[in-house]
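Suppose you are handed a protein chain with no further information: no name, no annotation, nothing but its sequence. What can you learn? This example shows the usual starting point.
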Amino acid sequence: MAEAPTHKTLPRLDESLLTHLPPFSRLEKRQIRKVLDLASSRRYDPGVAIFEEGHPAERFYMLLDGYVRVVRVTPNGEQITALHIPAGQLLGIARAIGRDTYPATAMTASESLVLSWPTSLWDTFVEDYDGFSTETYKTLGHRLGEMHNRVIEMTTQQVEQRVANALLRLINQTGRKVENGIEIDFPITRQDLSELTATTLHTVSRVLSGWEKRGLVESRRKRITVRDPHALMVLTQS
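A reasonable first move is to predict its three-dimensional structure. Written in structure tokens, the prediction is:
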């Protein structure tokens, strides 16, 4: 799947978009203006690949708005959702781990606004912009830590515990308060949850249906609301 073209030319972006984001938060306004002037901006529809696993890492990206699923394909062709990335983070940073191809596919989970720069600028950003390198490696460390925790969960926890942990992570990263609880703020299917927890769609459906009857969660088409986060936390520790 080729990178999707932008639907329209976006207006000139204001410096305030980047001033609060860690990779750029130490920069002066004039430096941020230069960073923005070097960037391309695109708006993506949901379900579009921003970049694909194995393709040359020609650009790196900043997710300004929306959510992205990081997807890997196993040797037998099975698709696995490895992570969800919320707005305000870099992605496609293959250069930071010494790669010249993308290690995974980035799929938009919702409509998303993305900045990108040629990978040829990576070394310039690292050298010229205070905090860019350290904050990038903090992001990498956080993602590696999350992946490590998921490996431990998959080898030591029962399915219910894994699903509960996945939902708690998602509401912590992207949750928004609604009348009846905390809703995951992007479309997510039971199939997505099965990939996140290394289990089957049937099993995830059975678990969620049981929790709905107990009033712990509410699930409707591509939307999941956690009604009782404390109860899920207790489940993860049982």
